[in-house]
Amino acid sequence: MTGLDLLIIVVYLTGTLWLGFSLTRKQLTIREYFTSGRQAPWGLIMFSIVATETSTVTIVSLPGFAFDNNLTFLQLVFGYLLGRLLISWLLLPSYFKGEYLTAYQILTERYGLGVRRLAAGIFLFTRNIADGFRLFSTGLVVAAALLTLPGATALAHSMFPTLSATTVLTIGSLLSLSVITIIYTSLGGMTAVLWTDFLHLVVYMGGTVLAGIALYNLIPGGLNEIIETGTASGRFQIFDFSFELNRNYTFWSGLVGGTCLTMATHGTDQLIVQRYLCSRTQADARKALLLSGFAVLVQFLLFLFIGVMLFVFYTDYSPNWLPSMSVKDSLPPDRVFPAFIVSQLPNGLRGLLVAAVIAAAMSTLSSSLNASASATIVDFYIPATRSTPKAQDYLKIAKRSTVVWGLVQLLVACAAIRFSQRVIDEVLGISSFTSGLILGMFLLTMSGSRRNLAAYTGIGSGALTMTWIRLFSDFSWQWYVLIGAVSTFLAGRFVEFIQTRLFSHEP
Is-contact 40 280, C-beta < 8 A? Predict the structure, then answer.
């Protein structure tokens, strides 16, 4: 890292804060704070969806996945596209039948406040654990960059002698990024989140494209060598039609698992549903959702191809400080692209790439914080408030809630330093474990279920089933959402059927 690299990073972070502050308006209601008054253009919402689901995990782990394996991750993306079609048809219309602020308010109409709070609580727990891991992956890149600064290692050891320099710098990076993101998210609300998401998208996509070009130019044989070496090593394999329930990234687990995962994350998760609620119309929300799927596909192709090029580069042109192809053994996959960034990119571009990784992290973190605050206030605090506070009181509590959830994710990220290896599997595995339960609950409401006992039994049965699957089976995490949703739905429908038979006089 040089002074130019650091200057670029500082300018980017300063610009992000400036944009966040400039978009901070005097918001009078939590509707304006959480949904921008439902006046956001669909194009901005589309970019925000893409930026939100393209976290640092995508930039760091996807190149590492292709470096270590192949392109079979794309099978999961095909499921993402199918899932979006089903959401636009089955779930999206429900969110435009009322003036909702969270996804879970529609559950109140069928099951009451208790079930709504249960769903919101599951969201809050899962979202903040998973996004804590996403934040951690950012610290890996920033710490790797800071380690190349003269005297950085010695300074870290002098400050905390019992910790490694990497750990010290990672924690420092996480703290700095969290503070900046918490400030502009808590002050600017959803409007600041949407526009800074657009800035983050431009920065991380521009930086990634430039890194890909630089990597391509480092391979003397160009495209022919990339194709020849990549094909010989099986790096260009996309489809795997084997049917083994314990394997990740097969065609069947990718298509079915990706569809179910997207229906859960984009159809029932407040993080993404909140963006639909910012739309002017249902048609705008549908356009933003569907077009975001194709944008994500293009992004994933870019990140995976960079991973293939990294494999070719480290096979034949490994840097001196990494032992030839033992780079595959000496570095976990998540560290390969960060190592390339700090060791091979020229001055200036290196700083831009670190800024790109930071951008991806901040887009996901800010969205997560605002969504968590909305679920906390709308689904828990307001229903529990006996007296009616002033609108400004709700806004103050919403901003404080944003800060609290930011601190929670920071703690999770620091804890992840000790045991994380390939972050993308851990993040998606965490999300998949509980997402099926919420999806199953929403499917119950669509089937006409109205009894609280059916909803609670469905959730309980789904949770027990997923716990058994997690502890005593080797099922791939890509089947988790399907298993959780089906077990929740079937248990709930069974109880509904029994109650209807026993109390047939009730409607």
Answer: yes
For residues 45 and 333, what is the distance between their CA atoms, to the nearest angstrom? 32
Query: Residues 359, 361, 365, 368: what is their CA dihedral angle, to the nearest 10 degrees?
Result: 110
* Helix (DSSP H) and strand (DSSP E) numbers for the chain: 21, 0
Give the span between the Cα atoms of 54 and 49, in whole angstroms.
8
Predicted pLDDT of residue 324: 39
User: What distance in Å separates the CA atoms of residue 347 and residue 238, rounded to the nearest whole number?
Assistant: 35
Secondary structure element (H or E) that encloses residue 322, with its range: none
Residue 194 lies in a domain: yes
* 144-148, 230-234, 260-264: the lowest-pLDDT one: 144-148
Buried b (16+ CB within 10 A) or exposed e, 112-137: eeebbbbbbebbbebbbbbbbbbbbb
Measure the N-to-C terminal CA separation of the chain; round to a whole number of Å.
Answer: 69
Whether the CB-CB separation of 267 and 298 falls below 8 Å is answered with: no
CATH label of the domain that carries residue 256: 1.20.1730.10
Flag whether 447 is in a domain: no
Q: Which value, in Å, is the radius of gyration of the alpha carbons in the chain? A: 23
Please state, in angstroms and rounded to a whole number, the distance separating the CA atoms of residues 280 and 285: 8
Q: Which pLDDT tens digit goes with each residue over 458-477?
A: 999 999 999 899 888 888 88
pLDDT of residue 375: 95
Split at pLDDT 50, 70, 90, the class of 246 is confident
pTM (2 d.p.): 0.89
**pLDDT recorded at residue 26:** 64
Domain annotation covers residue 23: yes
DSSP conformation class of 40: B
Mean pLDDT confidence for 22-49: 87
- As a whole number of angstroms, the distance between CA 290 and CA 87 comes to 9
- In this structure, the number of other CB atoms found within 10 A of the CB of residue 403 comes to 17
3-state SS record for 229-264: HHHHCCCCCCCCCCCCCCCCCCHHHHHHHHHHHHHH
Q: What is the 8-class DSSP label of residue 279?
A: B
What are the tens digits of pLDDT across the range 281-326?
999 999 999 999 999 999 999 999 999 999 998 876 654 434 434 4
Please classify residue 213 by burial: count the beta carbons closer than 10 Å to its beta carbon, then call 0-12 exposed, 13-18 middle and 19+ buried: exposed
Total domain count, the chain = 1
The dihedral through the CA atoms of 325, 326, 331, 333 has a sign that is: positive
**Is 373 a member of any domain?**
yes
Q: Could you read off the pLDDT of 127-186 as tens digits, one per residue?
A: 898 888 888 878 877 887 788 777 888 888 888 887 888 888 888 889 989 999 999 899
Domain extent at residue 351 = 3-422
